[in-house]
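worker-03 picked up job from queue 'complexes'. Input manifest follows; two sequence lines, order preserved.
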Amino acid sequence: MRESLTENLTILKKLLPAEDVLFHVFSAGDGTRGAVFYADGTVNKELLGELIIKPISNAKIAENSQNEGGRAGFIEKILRFPEIKHPKTFSETIKEVLDGNALLLIDGVPCAFIIGAKLLPVRAIMEPPTDIAVKGPREGFIEDIKTNMSLVRKRFKTPNLMFKSVKVGKQSNTMVSVCYLQGVSNQKIVQQVEERIQSISVDYIADSSYIATLISPRKQSLMREVATTEKPDIFCAKIAEGRVGILVDGSPIALTVPYLLTEDFQSSEDYFISPFAATTVRILRFLAFLVALVLPAAYVASQLFKMQLLPLGLTLTIASGAQGLPLSPSMETFLILLVLEILKEASIRMPKYVGMSLSVVGALVLGEAAVSAGFVSTTAIIIVAFSGICLYAVPNLVESGSVLRWIFLIVGGSLGIFGIITFAAFLLAYFVSSDAFDTPLLSPFSPLLPKDLRDSVVKYGMRSLDTRPVVLGSKNKTRLLKKKKESEK
Amino acid sequence: MNEQTEHHGVNARQICFFAAFLLPTLKLLDAPAILAKAAGNDLLFPVFLQYLAQSIPILCLLIVKAKTGQGPFSLVKERFGTIAHKIVLVLYAAFFLFYALRPLLDLEKFSYAAFYDTASSAFVFAPFFFLCAYLCSKSLSTLGRLADVCLPIFLVSFVLLFFLGISSADFAALLPFFGNPIADSFSGFYESIPLFFDAALFIPLIERMPYRKKDGVKIISSYWIGGAFVLLFTALFYGTYTSIAQREHFAIAKIAQYFPALDVIGRIDLIFVYLLVIVLFFATCVPCVHCVDSLFNAFPLKTRVPFAAVLNLALLTFTFFFNKRYNAVVNLIKSLTPIFLVFSTLLPVLSLLFLIKTTKNKGAGKRFSENLPKNKEVRLEN
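worker-03 finished. Artifact:
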């Protein structure tokens, strides 16, 4: 930095010509000129006025600076602000200003003061719409990374909680923070995550999903390789298990690695209800997901290739409903599924009040009219609608489940049950051979880790979950010390 | 990379599951009918004999592994050099290729019978080769992991099918034991040899496994657990079909259809049959996976994909042209039985010869497994 304020301001304005980057020049008590430099709308101007400009305006810098170790020392002393940094170069200074901090410059002081008076517009912490819990905490992450970090810190009052932050995105300079528990998380995975994040070279990070995609080991994958959550309690529970978390500025969705397929069948509520109820619900989710994928395909295949699968009464009912239909069962189901997907896509994007009327039009008018007009059978509509509902029993797998359902329908319609079974076997083989961050996707089922099965489909009681998942390779294996019985003592 | 992915082999637990839950499925298709034709109600005896006979080479392989820490392929390399090793691998690749033909044709015929009400096109079986090619392009650790997931699938489907089928079975039909001339039992044994070349499938697996104390006992016990499943099913099969058993090929698809409640609730037994077919698919792929693995080890390329693609294309062509010549293929494989026996039985037994020399060299009685850590420390492998 230069000593002359005018020179510094000229250079900075040349480097940051954008209109929203402002500077305000003011005078100290003895007439020494000072300036604050900031991006409009990102700084708490009230704090800046009260704690920075006001004390300097009242001070006589030239008189007092000799006793206080120079001008810089004196200014730092009179500033009533706790978070002050001194960037050494112009590029560092610019980064800080663009990050939302204010820059203080004083004439005759060859040093910049970065004031941490950032005040970015953030929304309030509220329950995330994608992860609603009947029992348990209702806080959700928001778009501000600092708030999200504080939500995590609130739950881990330990020096072992580490945050390692880096800036990603050549244009966006988005802050990405890797979060883990020292001594609990597998250091190899932490290192892998850090390396992968640092190797990202992209212009702009719009959301954490960019990071999830860019750090995934497989370029093309049917399933995601990084888990996501909007809830700090789930995020912290995963960190406590030994996983590594990633927070991205501007995104309310936090990431955790390694990801296991069973995670998506678990819910935070499973840990707040009785293990029996949790096990039942988990089995229901597994069944619902299977039904969602296979039911439309099985319906088509049973009609076209293997009628024996259905009881005679049901076969006759279906046959009477399908009598006179112009479309084949596979075409019929294909079209209904297409309508369902379009309705789903449209109702998500529509404004709420339009969405409601769209649902009525879709469900009643289209469905009812299509059956009455003899385009499709009632059975097919029931099958597809039930499959659609079942898929939402596992919300995190909706995207991949939807794609898989299409494939199942195509193979079921063209090859019958043989096609469905072959594709199911292929999927199983694919899942079994999928590893991300040195962790098998299908663990603890394959490779079989009996200890980890205690929190998979079956959920054991809290006392039985005394060790961390073996698959995560944590050095600190114990998470619950069991009390010894009197006799053992 | 940690030990989970670093290790491209399988562990003892996975071989146990492979022996107990994957291998038996191959014997549930055509074997019971063949045995019933040759041995009548004494069909259990040839199955028992087959398992007994196959246990010997498997045991030999395990002893060699326990004593030297190596499998026959590695020992050939160590003793006779790389060229001999490559020749052996290529020969075994050819053997596995021929080995794969019979299960493939059986599976194809079974698929038409179990999955379709009407005659289907020969092309419908083609997607199986995508699955097979995918598995072939992966290392043996994938096969090991599949063995892990096959445990619940096999147990659920087999047990439910067995209990659904038991209601219509008359086990008294199996009596009296040895009611037929003993020659019939041996004839059944001879006729079913091509379906029981199990020991060969263990060679690449045992080659890759890290041997630890008592692994041998576990693997042999698991093999016999698999044998028990086959014996149970064979008994159920004969108890259900008795005198017409020899004509009931691929009976697994209909063994439980006589359960009374199925008239009301539909053929839910087929769901369990289809589940079992998933395991059967993987078991049928095993010789192909071994074939590609042998070729890949003989001629290491960047990936296994070229070998997997060529092999599966060849097998697809074969099944397409020869599915109508089933009997001719079966007869061909039967005529190759002596050669198959050399690969699956004689060579594993002869691998004991390596042991004699190794023991002389390295000092007798010292078990390789003593140098390895306990099971607990390597539980994450694969």
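worker-03 released lock.
The interface with chain B takes residues 188, 305-312, 314, 411, 415-419, 421-426, 428-430, 432-433, 435, 438-440, 442, 445-449, 470-471, 473 of chain A (CB under 8 Å).
The longest strand of chain A covers residues 161-168.
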